[in-house]
Design a protein that fits this description.
With about 625 residues, the protein is an alpha+beta fold. The protein is built from 14 helices and 16 strands. The chain starts with 10 loop residues before the first strand and ends in a 14-residue tail after the last strand.
Length: about 625
């Protein structure tokens, strides 16, 4: 086969993420900076909400017809919310999320009828809304909104750096555009000690961002005083460490600046020819502790497209528990250029170590059960004492939390997460509640605090192991240098949402969590994009039901793991068969790309050595 020449673009932008270990405690001034950044976000959301309200008020003032139907829509939306609340109550009574249960059927029917009614109202409102829009001064409303946003981001109002304020504004703009597109609502963020610091890198007297790695060292005159590398420890050859000094608070005057120092683990090198555009220090919460990471945005030359081997690989995602007790995450099928299966299909199983930690009988779940039981006892003791939240004035910032605990129905127990938040608050404000309540809560914390921290640390460690394992699997997969096929699926259907119906029990939901489809597919896509290997999303329809030998569709197939083709009598493993069919669909898509002359793809006629993807066991 004649190799096609690759079309090389000028550059691409990639993000390199590294773990950072703080040297000493994080400065309190840095916490204040994060709080002000979070406050800015909430101010922007409030400006957005006020702007939408002004638009609606202007429409209603311009058209009485629209005002009447708008009021009807608001009343109907309130009815729908009440119907969803009734559905949640029905779920508690039925003790299931199965939509076939009579109580849920009735609740769903009510919601469906209300949605039909509001849809008719919206259809009636559309022409009236358009007519009202023509009568209002949109330019003035838009200018008021833009000026309010600019005012909120100014240093004298936000009290944070202009670079960080601008970045928060960019994130807000993206979120706002998506909210309009998806008809969603922007949310306020409760400050929990997390956030980020943003740094732009630019050479002196230059108008475009970008510096080299060497420019970040503090012995370089071009180095920004806000973000610099003080030293590098080369004693660890594979993973050297950088000593970073980062400004987390303070103004332009050097004496006023507050710095935090970190050790950055350089587990992979930054490209020597790349231009580092910016960096972001992120602070995330893990239990009652915090983790730090540094993300570098690097503009680098686009590498030449690799030589691809003939054939394809199919990845079939699954949540199946095998006979030997393992949890199957996916099946990998390999085919040659003629679509014939190569070797045995490989199965990726969740590791026994992860199952022992996070499974039904794992140590993490045992800790969670013990904490739930202890929090339930605490809740029964303190709920009568909280007097429906009357122990605090309404203007107190914790009034809603206390009232929510006091008003919890008898069939809902106090969660250990909320109990821990309550105890953390009372550690700092021990006089906020009556002494008997404070003593009960602090006794719970003293007895269970260590278990709570152990639970979150073990969970975080297990999930980190899974992430590294998925990355290793993805790296081994792309070394085959073959096109990869995955099913085109909506990942949101695998997520747990409060109003979504499903027949899954607690164990099945836990299995979905252990596998984490999005993380596995993300690792494969990222590794393939990095190495220039194409990934094709193929339709999942009948991939399990189509015989990979004779192409007969077994329409009667339900959920059987093994089945026999009615046409050719071949016995199939469901996931194995699907992986082969997915690989063939990917090969077809790949052939179409070649036919249409995609110059970013070229091939090697020499078949590389087959690399075996590591098992997850």
């Amino acid at each position: 086969m004649v190799a096609r020449q690759a079309k090389v673009s000028d550059s691409r932008t990639r993000v390199y993420k590294y773990g950072a270990v703080p040297i000493g405690p994080f400065p309190s001034e840095g916490m204040d900076e994060l709080w002000r950044a979070n406050k800015l976000w909430n101010q922007l959301v409030e400006i957005h909400n006020n702007n939408r309200t002004k638009y609606e008020e202007a429409r209603c003032a311009a058209s009485s017809d629209y005002a009447l139907i708008s009021e009807s829509i608001k009343l109907k939306q309130a009815e729908i919310e009440e119907a969803y609340q009734a559905k949640r109550q029905a779920r508690m009574h039925a003790n299931t999320k199965d939509a076939q249960h009579p109580l849920l059927q009735q609740a769903n029917q009510t919601i469906e009828n209300l949605k039909k009614e509001i849809k008719k109202l919206w259809e009636l409102a559309k022409p009236k809304r358009s007519a009202a829009d023509e009568k209002i001064n949109k330019v003035l409303l838009r200018e008021e909104f833009n000026e309010a946003i600019k005012a909120a981001k100014r240093i004298k109002n936000s009290a944070i750096s202009s670079v960080l304020a601008d970045q928060i504004g960019e994130y807000f703009k993206t979120a706002r555009d998506k909210a309009f597109k998806d008809n969603a609502t922007l949310r306020f963020h409760r400050f929990d000690g997390t956030g980020f610091f943003f740094f732009r890198f630019r050479r002196a007297h230059q108008h475009t961002d970008g510096v080299s790695f060497a420019d970040l060292f503090d012995n370089n005159p071009l180095t920004s005083a806000n973000f610099c590398i003080q030293s590098i420890d080369q004693s660890r050859v594979k993973k050297p460490r950088l000593r970073l000094r980062i400004k987390v608070a303070g103004g332009a005057v050097k004496a006023n600046k507050i710095y935090a120092v970190f050790d950055l683990v350089l587990h992979r090198p930054l490209p020597s020819s790349g231009q580092i555009q910016n960096a972001k220090l992120t602070r995330t919460r893990i239990g009652d502790k915090f983790a730090y990471s540094i993300c570098f945005t690097v503009k680098e030359e686009m590498p030449k497209a690799p030589l691809l081997n003939e054939g394809a690989i199919g990845v079939d995602i699954g949540f199946r528990q095998t006979k030997d007790g393992l949890l199957r995450a996916a099946a990998l099928g390999f085919i040659d250029s003629q679509g014939q299966a190569q070797g045995e299909v490989e199965f990726l199983d969740v590791s026994e170590k992860l199952m022992q930690r996070m499974g039904d009988e794992g140590h993490v779940n045992q800790l969670k059960t013990n904490l739930d039981q202890a929090a339930n006892v605490l809740g029964m003791n303190i709920k009568p004492l909280l007097k429906a939240g009357q122990v605090l004035p309404e203007e107190h910032p914790k009034y809603k939390m206390v009232k929510a605990v006091a008003n919890m129905p008898g069939n809902i127990t106090l969660s250990f997460e909320r109990a821990y938040k309550l105890s953390t608050w009372l550690m700092h404000e021990p006089d906020a509640l009556p002494v008997n309540i404070v003593n009960s809560v602090q006794l719970w914390r003293k007895t269970n605090g260590r278990s709570y921290r152990e639970l979150h640390n073990l969970r975080a460690k297990a999930l980190l192991e899974r992430k590294h394992l998925y990355r290793e699997i993805a790296a081994n997969l792309v070394r085959h240098r073959k096109p990869i096929g995955i099913e085109k699926i909506t990942l949101t259907k695998f997520a747990e949402t409060k109003d979504a119906d499903n027949k899954l029990g607690n164990k099945a939901r836990a299995n979905r969590f252990l596998v984490s489809v999005s993380e596995l597919l993300g690792a494969i896509k990222n590794a393939a994009e990095r190495e220039g290997v194409p990934v094709y999303e193929v339709p999942p329809r009948n991939t399990s039901k189509t015989c990979s030998v004779c192409n007969h569709v077994q329409k009667t197939l339900q959920h059987e793991l093994r089945w026999i083709c009615a046409n050719c009598a071949t016995e199939h493993d469901r996931d194995q068969n699907a992986a082969i069919n997915i690989a063939r669909l990917a090969l077809e898509k790949h052939a179409e790309m070649i036919t249409h002359g995609d110059e970013s793809i070229h091939f090697s006629s020499v078949d590389h050595e087959v690399l075996t993807a590591k098992s997850m066991t």
